[in-house]
Amino acid sequence: MSLLRYIDLIYLSVMTKRADILEFAVLGMLGDGPLHGYELRKRLDTVLGPFRTLSFGSLYPCLRRIEQRGWIAQVTVTPATESSAPALSGRRARVVYSLTGDGKEAFDQWVNEAGPEAWEDEGFAAHLAFFGRTEARVRVRILEGRRSRMEERVAMLRESVTRSKDRVDTYTLELQNHGLDRAEHEVRWLNELITTERKNAESAQSSNKA
User: Fold this and answer.
1) By the 8 A CB rule, do 138 and 112 touch?
2) Under DSSP, is residue 112 helix (H, G, I), strand (E, B) or coil?
3) Could you give the CA distance from residue 19 to residue 107 in angstroms, rounded to a whole number?
4) What is the pTM for the complete model shown?
5) Fewer CB within 10 Å, N side or C side of the chain?
């Protein structure tokens, strides 16, 4: 296999995962009720914003894909019936997107998966946004997986900083140290979340026994 073909396959795999994450994030947002495309994009930006820029050019193809699978449906609303979706300016009929039964099942399955996809930056952000709909044991597994991934990143960054001290200028070194500080901070934050999740689980078990 040529190097260019190998790079193409890696790129395709990454883009496929990004598309999947966006699809399930859409399903999760629609779980709260029907939304216009504009309002849906705004809400998705709050979830995926730190890791990607979401445009209508990527949102609407995503909506078409999951509509073809039967996971969402378009509903036309008039000003008189628009109370089920956030209002937009103007008085003409609007199209909103609503979640179907199949879409809810697909989302419930995704939100309770704790594989490597859920540990990467964008996948973790999406899963974390819907932790309220995730089983407690799965939340812990995702947090532990993310912690392991970040601990690996911390080790790599530390090694990079050590090797770079005498070879890069002050500003580059400061940038590397900044990245290391952020990674170490996230590990500490994850440890706190995991501790809290486990305490809540123990408390729930004690209540059930009582």
Assistant:
1) yes
2) coil
3) 14
4) 0.78
5) C
